[in-house]
């Protein structure tokens, strides 16, 4: 796969390990005849380390031999998260520290969650772009403040804290962006 064709979320092989691309920046040349540089911020799926990759637009990276399976969370214990494949009911486990960024968005019955399977083992989670969560605790809004764009912190059912507009009340369901952790709208 050419460097110029790689998108965020693509899984490629870099130095023999599968890495998922998390961010891309393009540096255009200032001199005539110079090559455009693509700088990728990636995460190694096996070691979970961050990796910086710089390539010219015509350089190649191989796509990783992995696949995504739609899964459902069964339960968690002190060290692992247990998932079940929705098609063949195969169970996977993954260490909590490997998915600690994704866990605040995961609830039982979450639709659209997929496990990244590499060499028959789960190496990560792919979440939907947004999830719906219920507010368990937030301060009540003050009358007359709904016209301003002030926000207040709200604790959601998974323990995630997001800033919401002042008119939002405890017990409401919200849409949260899983990429940025920001409030999108009421559900």
Question: How would you explain this protein's 3D organization?
Answer:
With 187 residues, the protein is mostly beta strands. The chain has three domains: 3-63, Roll (SH3 type barrels), CATH 2.30.30.30; 67-126, Beta Barrel (OB fold (Dihydrolipoamide Acetyltransferase, E2P)); 130-186, Beta Barrel (OB fold (Dihydrolipoamide Acetyltransferase, E2P)), CATH 2.40.50. Helices cover 0% and strands 50% of the residues. It is built from no helices and 15 strands. It has strands spanning 11-14, 17-27, 37-44, 50-56, 62-63, 67-76, 80-85, 91-95, 114-118, 121-126, 130-138, 151-156, 161-165, 173-177, 183-186. The strands form three sheets. A five-stranded antiparallel β-sheet has the order 4-3-2-1-5, with no helix packed on it. Strands 8-7-6-9-10 form a five-stranded antiparallel β-sheet, with no helix packed on it. It has a five-stranded antiparallel β-sheet with strand order 13-12-11-14-15, with no helix packed on it. Strand 6 and strand 7 form a beta hairpin. The radius of gyration is 20 Å and the shape is flat. The model has no long low-confidence stretch (mean pLDDT 86).
């Amino acid at each position: 796969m050419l460097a110029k064709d790689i998108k965020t979320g693509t899984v490629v092989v870099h130095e023999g390990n599968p890495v998922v691309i998390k961010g891309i920046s393009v540096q255009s040349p200032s001199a005539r005849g110079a090559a455009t540089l693509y700088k990728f911020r990636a995460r190694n799926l096996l070691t979970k380390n961050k990796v910086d990759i710089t390539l010219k637009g015509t350089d190649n990276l191989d796509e990783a031999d992995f696949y995504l399976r739609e899964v459902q969370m069964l339960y968690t214990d002190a060290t692992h998260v247990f998932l079940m494949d929705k098609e063949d009911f195969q169970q996977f486990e993954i260490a909590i520290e490997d998915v600690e960024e994704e866990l605040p968005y995961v609830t039982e019955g979450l639709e659209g969650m997929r496990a990244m399977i590499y060499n028959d083992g789960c190496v990560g989670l792919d979440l939907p772009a947004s999830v719906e969560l219920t507010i368990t605790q937030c301060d009540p809004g003050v009358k007359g403040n709904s016209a301003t764009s002030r926000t207040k912190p709200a604790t959601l059912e998974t323990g995630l804290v997001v800033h919401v507009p002042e008119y939002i009340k405890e017990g409401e369901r919200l849409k949260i962006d899983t990429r940025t952790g920001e409030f999108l709208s009421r559900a």
